[in-house]
Amino acid sequence: AVLLAIWGRETGFGAAKMPYDAFEVLGTKAFMSTRKDFFRTELLAALEIVERGLAPVGAMKSSWAGALGQPQFMPTSFLKHAVDFDGDGRVDIWNSTPDVLASIANYLVHYGWVKGRGWGFEVTVPESVSCSLEGPDQGKKISQWADMGIKRVGGKPFPVSELKAEGFLLMPAGRSGPAFVATPNFYVLKQYNTSDLYALFIGHGADRIAHGDQNFAGSWGAVGGLHRSDIAALQRALEAKGYDVGSADGLPGFKTRRSIGIWQAKNGRAATCFPDADLVAVLK
Q: In what order do the strands lie in the sheet with 179-182?
């Protein structure tokens, strides 16, 4: 189901067309973009694909960002992860469904997908558990999270096979949205796209494919009212106070969210672990 969710998210199960010449896209970005070195490396990898006979020049169609085929692999990822699964002698991530799905699976395996584990569980987090405990560097055994009062939504217990395994608190909107205990596989999904919300989309999509259409039990609050520049200003203010926010990029990742929660708690405020207009005004 995870493979189908990624395939569906990236190219609508192959329905999305790849209208651009990969060499034109990558060459232009290598010359003009703000990430010249990245795209120069990808351009050279695309040339290597053709030079080694892995794909003909005419097949090298990409998105506007230079990502190839139905899995949307950058050329370096193609070289590392793409496979010929239908046995026709060529790797065709543009037209062969077996090659597409096997290549996505190979990508996940190479980044450490743990067989037999899912991506995570939606949970309720009591007020006694700080939202600042979030993050892939603050893992605990799932049994320990349960002992702290964290429970699966719907009343189901955590699977016995998971209790001794490591899990990570994930609160992508702080106290203003659903909460999760994520497995290491969640962070494998983030190797495909570094966004928490992307990985959450894939995990949720996979669950819906496997178990039927259902929404998260937790609701999303008003989390979209700030400009990216406002969040970046908040991040810079927290950095000046010694907090590790990841980077002042205007995106509230887990390091920013938990830094907010720690600052709020130290200053006598309820920890929400998410930026809002009041926080921006106080900290700017």
A: 140-141, 166-170, 179-182, 120-124, 151-152
Residue-wise pLDDT for 67-114, tens only, equals 999 999 999 999 999 999 999 999 999 999 999 999 999 999 999 999
Burial 234-255 (b: 16+ CB within 10 A, else e): bbebbbeeebebbebebbbbbb
Q: What CATH class has 120-211?
A: mainly alpha
Using one digit for the tens of pLDDT, what is the confidence trace for 108-122? 999 999 999 999 999
Residue identified by tokens 């320990």 is 144
Q: How many CB atoms lie within 10 A of CB 210?
A: 12
E runs forming strands in the chain: 20-21, 61-62, 120-124, 140-141, 151-152, 166-170, 179-182
Please answer whether residues 256 and 233 qualify as being in contact, where contact means their C-beta atoms are separated by less than 8 angstroms.
Answer: no
- Distance, C-alpha 40 to centroid of its chain: 24
Find out whether 187 and 202 touch, Cβ atoms under 8 Å.
no
Given the candidates 1.10.8, 1.10.10, 1.10.287, 2.20.25, the CATH classification of the domain at 2-110 is: 1.10.8
